[in-house]
Amino acid sequence: GENVEQHPSTLSVQEGDSAVIKCTYSDSASNYFPWYKQELGKRPQLIIDIRSNVGEKKDQRIAVTLNKTAKHFSLHITETQPEDSAVYFCAASINSNYQLIWGAGTKLIIKP
Amino acid sequence: EAQVTQNPRYLITVTGKKLTVTCSQNMNHEYMSWYRQDPGLGLRQIYYSMNVEATDKGDVPEGYKVSRKEKRNFPLILESPSPNQTSLYFCASSHSLWDSPYEQYFGPGTRLTVT
């Protein structure tokens, strides 16, 4: 079946440094790629998304890049802050884009 | 306030005792979905619904039932819960045009323990 692989499973970075999380998807028909952030004990919330007709999207310190040929997309967080500590999930649309299939998540730890 | 609500938030039950977890959204969203979240496995979809009376299986539907009789409600039913259904459950909703998914809004989660 279709799947999304997400790496790394845990990422520890110094406050102020950049963090990059990568995902690879298998369904060449996927055209929507969101990233969700889940703080401890909270619900997942969308932080940024990208559609297949663009290669990059930025929102302040967060950016997402998409390489459709290679079927991978990445989340970039610059100037990391303590409040960036959370689990981040990537996802890709499948089945005529009615469903999302999710990566296993990356626990991001920001060291002071 | 736009929101997705779930009840109960916490539930401890015994094997075989039927239970229902309710989910309601007030955003007039067409699409609703149930996920379970287990450590190291991310979010796995149980069932989803494109609109009223339109439901379909996700990745892990075994042991679960759903219904969508009204646009705002999407209850999850466990007819005979088993310990392997112990998990954190999330309901989510979004607008959905035919070929274009949108941001999913998640409920607060229901932590279910089956003993």
Description:
The complex is a heterodimer of chains A (112) and B (115). Chain A has 112 residues and is an all-beta fold. In chain A, 0% of the residues lie in helices and 58% in strands. In chain A, a hairpin with a 4-residue loop joins β7 and β8 (72-77). Chain A starts with a strand and ends with a strand. In chain B, 0% of the residues lie in helices and 53% in strands. Chain B is built from no helices and 13 strands. Chain B has strands spanning 4-7, 10-13, 19-25, 31-38, 42-51, 54-57, 65-66, 76-78, 87-94, 96-97, 100-101, 105-106, 110-114. The interface between A and B is medium-sized, with 24 and 24 residues.
Helix content of chain A: under 10%
- Helix/strand class of chain B: mainly beta
Q: How many β-strand stretches of chain B?
A: 13
Q: How confident overall, as mean pLDDT of chain A?
A: 94
General shape of chain B: globular
Distance between the termini of chain A: 41 Å
Structural class of chain A: mainly beta
Quickly list its features:
heterodimer; A: 112 residues; mainly beta; six-stranded mixed β-sheet; five-stranded antiparallel β-sheet; 11 strands; globular; B: 115 residues; seven-stranded mixed β-sheet; four-stranded antiparallel β-sheet; 13 strands
Write the layout of secondary structure elements.
The complex is a heterodimer of chains A (112) and B (115).
Chain A: E1 4-7, E2 10-14, E3 19-25, E4 32-38, E5 45-51, E6 56-59, E7 62-67, E8 72-77, E9 86-94, E10 99-102, E11 106-111
Parallel strand pairs in A: 2-11
Antiparallel strand pairs in A: 1-3, 3-8, 4-5, 4-9, 6-7, 7-8, 9-10, 9-11
Chain B: E1 4-7, E2 10-13, E3 19-25, E4 31-38, E5 42-51, E6 54-57, E7 65-66, E8 76-78, E9 87-94, E10 96-97, E11 100-101, E12 105-106, E13 110-114
